[in-house]
Every structure is written in C-alpha cells, then in structure tokens.
Amino acid sequence: MHPFAYTKPADTRSALVAGARGGRYIAGGTTLVDLMRETVERPGTLVDISGLPLRDVRTGERRELRIGALARMSDVAAHPRVRSAYPVVSQALELSASAQLRNMATIGGNIMQRTRCTYFRDVSAACNKRQRGSGCAALEGYNRSHAILGTSDACVATHPSDLAVALAALDTVVHLLGPDGERSLTLTEFLLRPGSTPDREHDLRPGELITALEIPPHPQPLRSGYLKVRDRQSYEFALTSAAVVLHITGGVIRDARVAAGGVGTVPWRLTAVERRLVGARPSDRLWAQAAAEASHGARPLRHNGFKTELLERTVERQLRTVGGTP
C-alpha cells in the first residue's frame, strides 16, 4: 500500500472542498481499501465521509423512497418500508455479501464499487480499465465470468453490484452534490458502458459525491424479486441474476421492469423482455417467450457462451416466481 493523507471532514461543505482538491471519498471502505492494498488504486488523500448526515431512509410526499448514500446495506435491507414495498432491493442486498460486510458497506459505495475482473486486479496484466490504452487481457484470456452484453473491444468486465441491478429495474435516480451544486441522474445514466473509455465508469464530476438514491413511485400493487445464480451458495459474485418488477391488475401485466446482472458491463435493462410482457396475461408460455428475448444483442466470448442460455433460464424462472401462473 502506498502512503496517503487522511482527513475526516465534520460537515458536507468541508468534504466537498477536500474532494475538489483531489481527495478520494471513503466511507465503509470495503472495496477501496482492498484495491489500495493491491496497489490498483493509489489515492494521495482519503476523505472520510462516514460522519456526514446521509443515512436516512424515508418516504417523500410523492411516495418516492429516498435512501441516504451512507445508509448501511444491512440497515436498508431490514428497513420495513423497503421490505414491504421493494423486496427486490432487500433480496439483492442480502444476497450481495456476508453479514459482516453488509454491516460496513454503504449504499453509495455499493453502486460505486469496481469490477472483480481478475485482470483488473492484477497490476501485471493489461487492463484498459486500470490504464487506458494498455489492452484487455480478458479478450484472449480466461473469460468465463465476463460480460456478454454492453461490451466493447476495450473492455468486457462485468459490473459487480447486485443492488444496482435491482435499482436499475426500479428506475432509481442518483442525487449528486459537488462544487457546482446539485444534480440528478438516473442510475442507468450514472453508470457508464466501457466504449473506448472503460476507465471512466461513472458520470461523476471532480469533487462530486453521492448524497442519496431515490426510487420513484411505482403503480400499485407491485410485485418484485431478485434471483442470483452463482458457482457456490455462499457469498459469490453472480454468473447471472435477474431483478423483476411487475404491476398486474385484472389478470393483465400493466407494467414490467426487468434487469440482469452478472452478464453486462453495467446493470442491464432487458427492454425487449419488458415489451413482450406488457399487455399480456401471465402464463408459462408468456414467461418462456419473454425470457427468450433476454439475450438479444449478446456477444459471448470463448469461455462464457453458456451465459446466453443461463440468462434466459434465470429470467424465465424469476418471471414465473414473481408473476405466478393462473
């Protein structure tokens, strides 16, 4: 680990000043500290924001759910409003990591976590995400765990967050605060596909920090759930996952939101699946037909071609679990 300076601002304004000077924000530190140990990340200054008042979980006047960026994963997963209205979020959080990590890690840090690609974490390997222009060792290397959607010739690393998949399905908004004031982006705008600049993973301006995530109101009644498929039952990153959110009334699907993880360079909204679902009546045949659209546009690599069928099967299973059958 390389030497670094450390500061813990007493208020948000002081934190922004330190961030604008080039400091790296840290709260739970469950990702950044590991990367510093491995010398992947070498920040000159750490700005500890864990004391800032950004932990509230509350419902607004429009029934939107606002989650403070520094709320702990375990607290959000256990929150009564989250568990009752958005079980897909609670399930994604509880499947993300061990209880010890969930007690430390923050919601903002979770969506900011960097890829678990082994080539990214091996400083001797070529990695455009770590150093733009150095190449991508995964393209010709062992790439079983890598992405099949949203890839580019520069990067095929998957996004590691389970929570972000659930939040993407719910059209979550990211609230930011920086030297130039406040702004808001949808999560799918905030998380960037690699393209030719895989080292730029977020639409985050210098000195900005995440203050809250907001789940907008959705039509009721709302059914939702998260399914994660992995190599082992204990805490492991997803080979594929599916977040399904359905609004069904009068025996017809009025609204559908479906997102996948473990297969995309960002949490991947399955819009073709959603289009097939809306206006239809739940049935085993519908779930199978809709799930067949899940892998549209996939670009499998040498070792991860199995993810195409696995994704379709995962989506079908979760559609049936959440939507049921007549």
UniProtKB/TrEMBL annotation:
Signal peptide positions on this chain: none
Pfam family, one: FAD_binding_5
PROSITE patterns tied to this protein: FAD_PCMH (PS51387)
Record key words, sorted: Oxidoreductase
Superkingdom assignment: Bacteria
GO molecular function: FAD binding; oxidoreductase activity
Keyword Oxidoreductase: yes
InterPro entries according to UniProt: CO_DH_flav_C, CO_DH_flav_C_dom_sf, Diverse_Substr_Oxidored, FAD-bd_PCMH, FAD-bd_PCMH-like_sf, FAD-bd_PCMH_sub1, FAD-bd_PCMH_sub2, Mopterin_DH_FAD-bd
Domain FAD-binding PCMH-type: 1-220
Protein name: Xanthine dehydrogenase family protein subunit M
The species this protein was found in: Actinomadura rudentiformis
